[in-house]
Amino acid sequence: MNRIISKKQLSADVYEMTIEAPLIAKSRKAGQFLIVQIDTDWGERIPLTIADADPAAGTITMVFQTVGASTHKLAVLSPGDSVENVLGPLGNPTHIEKFGTVVCVGGGIGVAPLFPIVQAMKEAGNTVKVIIGARTKELVIFEDRMRKYADELVIVTDDGSYGRKALVTEPLREFCEADPKPDMSIAIGPPIMMKFCEKTTAEFDVPIMVSLNTIMIDGTGMCGGCRVTVGGETKFVCVDGPEFDGHKVDFENMMIRMRSYKDREDRDHHTCHIGLGIEPHAAPGGK
Amino acid sequence: LAIPVQEMPTQDPAARGKNVSEVALGYGECQARLEAERCLGCKNAPCVRGCPVQVPIPRFIEEIQKGDFKAAADTIKETNLLPAVCGRVCPQEKQCQLECTVGKSLKSIDNAVAIGRLERFVADWERENNKVTVPEVKPGTGKKVAVVGSGPAGLTVAADVAREGHRVTIFEAFHKTGGVMVYGIPEFRLPKSIVQAEVDILKKMGVSIETNFLVGRTRTVKELMEEDGFDAVFIGVGAGLPKFLGCPGENLVGVFSANEYLTRANLMKAYDAEKSATPIYQSRIVAVIGGGNVAMDAARMALRLGAAEVHVIYRRTRDEMPARAEEVEHAMEEGIVFDFLRNPEKILGDDQGRVTGMEVKKYELGEPDASGRRSPVPIAGSEYIFDCDTVIVALGNESNPLLTKTTDNLDVDRRGRIIVNEDQKTSLDRVYAGGDIVLGAATVILAMGEGRKAAAAINTLLK
Ligand SMILES: Cc1cc2nc3c(=O)[nH]c(=O)nc-3n(C[C@H](O)[C@H](O)[C@H](O)COP(=O)(O)OP(=O)(O)OC[C@H]3O[C@@H](n4cnc5c(N)ncnc54)[C@H](O)[C@@H]3O)c2cc1C
Ligand SMILES: Cc1cc2nc3c(=O)[nH]c(=O)nc-3n(C[C@H](O)[C@H](O)[C@H](O)COP(=O)(O)OP(=O)(O)OC[C@H]3O[C@@H](n4cnc5c(N)ncnc54)[C@H](O)[C@@H]3O)c2cc1C
Ligand code: SF4
Ligand code: SF4
Ligand code: FES
């Protein structure tokens, strides 16, 4: 079960992993995610988006960034190994329809979960404009894949080492100023990026969907750990989301909640680097 | 009637607040036989009427008196498949023991025959001495039954249906089987190895178990029946939707549902901070809101995870608490503070969004309500600030809508509970349901009772 078929390092700390999961491959839709646990007795359950799937081969692909203990442990597994527990597909699929022009913004690792949405939006007959943002050149992922589907593709980096030196909100603003203005926009990335994308689109009255990446445990609506405030109401990201109307999300509260276990994570982060012999942000990996 | 109630040995309260080993240690053989002697073997057996599954109580106790513990265990299992669990977690003082003649004639429920402890004793004796017999399974019928959820309801259905020779597959969303018995009820009250032993028996009976399988998402009920060839489906997905307070501040950092807190602590074993990867909030003063078993479990777990002070905040008084009497007693012994007739109005936080306290209002008891309990009435102007850094909301669970929403034409009531007929059949043909998803948050034994009824109906259907 859940045998790893292939693993690729996409950038310094981003990995792409394809695993056998025929049922999930068959039923998943764009925007849905998994809960992955590496060790049944002691492991943490972590949410990862299904970046791609091949129903015929019975495989699914996830792209993840090594940020803490669990993602590092996942990264050291090799083809042939198995991921002990994989649950999915979870969450509501992205609402796909022919909107007209859709702007898709992906920041950092958020580019991976954005990809199936770009694909589906294009297939639904939309004009799709894509913005990829990253800290630096090494961290730009999925460029080729996006190019296949995007009508327009803009890449920005914080340090200007690739594409434009800008934040994603700059090209987003330009797309919003264009005529006709976008009928829909989607942002996936760090909460702070989504928050500023929301602000930008709000100025132009452009609707925005955001995919929230809160802390989760069960992913089935049982624990409430993933809750966020949307439009003044408490919602569970795993079952009510993960996508919400960005204009209604209380990002401040969400960012605060995501730091709930910061102390513990910092400790783990430290010990796991020692334990696994991995340097954070090690030498850039080959593509 | 001369023999006093045999007290069950327990771990020392001071020591047990620091470990997660079982608190109640169970009877030894002598004690069990002494306690059994207290039973009068009443002809009309009022105790049996108090038990939701009608365990033949006088008969099994008679076997203990004779010293035939195996026969006692087999007698219980005629109607109750999980005696080691029920002996530990049933609210006996409201069920079998409430009706006991001995208790009544000694004018105190505390003097009733300790039926639960005896039940636990024989089940433990049977397991520890490797005397458990795997139930006989009839020759294969070629029929397939899907059981959704591996809580007490699902496990019961699986056993009863497998016995008839049908092929049973249990689908469980979590990575471990047992439902609330593994993720909710803590190790110190119900060791996980006991639940595992029950699941192992099912495996020996040929039941397949698919963990990490969320029915409604991984496959729908319809797909299981139309594409995967299941002839009948039992839905035992539990309640599993935590209630929150609905008051300001409930989304601050440091506010948890008891489900999250207990899942991290039990299923993910956060009590072993070195080995477990799951993080748990470091708390100093914990306020647990609620008065049921869930609240007791959360409070006692918080203590074991290192909190300096744990308060249970409850709107009514001890008499109205729905928790099992033994758990309340144990919690008090362990030093949990009970703040009765209190309810939070608002949770307060600092500029980092972390909990710093609660605004609490005082209550008094008013007239009895429809349920006969005296209802709490707020006292105007009685608000005060209670300092704490963690709030655990343990107000119980409502029905998780995931499965019902992804299953067309499955009728549910206003509160999302699946509607069933007297055979536990739902509005869909060949689909049955039972346990908390039908009853609302109830008990292990009631879930099992519904499972037995559903299994009987499924077995009739597939004849
Ligand atoms: C619906 C959903 C989909 C996701 N999809 C992906 C994906 O496709 N690829 C991917 O790499 N990540 C994804 N994430 C984030 C991913 O779950 C976290 O990175 C992961 O849980 C971190 O686990 P860890 O044990 O390695 O790190 P931890 O030790 O738990 O955390 C290390 C650091 O990461 C931060 N962190 C913790 N949890 C999250 C989180 N949920 N989101 C962002 N930062 C977090 C912590 O604050 C800390 O600084 C998704 C999250 C959600 C909720
Ligand atoms: C903390 C706590 C303490 C309790 N203490 C006591 C006590 O002392 N005594 C007592 O009698 N009762 C107690 N209860 C109540 C008792 O545990 C429940 O009434 C009982 O477990 C209900 O059984 P069930 O089979 O209906 O469902 P559950 O035990 O809830 O099991 C349902 C299972 O189904 C799984 N599931 C849910 N949805 C899906 C899906 N779509 N697909 C696949 N699987 C799914 C869940 O993961 C879960 O494992 C307590 C409950 C809690 C939460
Ligand atoms: S199953 Fe529960 S109620 Fe019935 S006899 Fe046993 S302990 Fe009592
Ligand atoms: S009512 Fe009490 S004394 Fe009578 S048979 Fe039942 S347990 Fe024994
Ligand atoms: S992850 Fe538990 S409710 Fe969403």
UniProtKB/TrEMBL annotation, chain A:
PROSITE patterns: FAD_FR. Its cofactor is [2Fe-2S] cluster; FAD. The keyword Flavoprotein applies. GO terms for biological process: pyrimidine nucleotide biosynthetic process. FAD binds at residues 63-65. Keywords: 2Fe-2S, FAD, Flavoprotein, Iron, Iron-sulfur, Metal-binding. Transmembrane segments: none annotated. GO terms for molecular function: 2 iron, 2 sulfur cluster binding; flavin adenine dinucleotide binding; metal ion binding; oxidoreductase activity. Residues 1-96 form the FAD-binding FR-type domain. CDD domains: DHOD_e_trans_like1. Binds 1 [2Fe-2S] cluster per subunit. Binds 1 FAD per subunit. [2Fe-2S] cluster binds at residues 223, 226, 238. InterPro entries: Cyt_c3_hydrogenase_gsu, Dihydroorotate_DH_Fe-S-bd, FAD-bd_FR_type, FNR_nucleotide-bd, OxRdtase_FAD/NAD-bd, PyrK_electron_transfer, Riboflavin_synthase-like_b-brl. NCBIfam families: PRK06222.1. This is Sulfide/dihydroorotate dehydrogenase-like FAD/NAD-binding protein. It comes from Breznakiella homolactica.
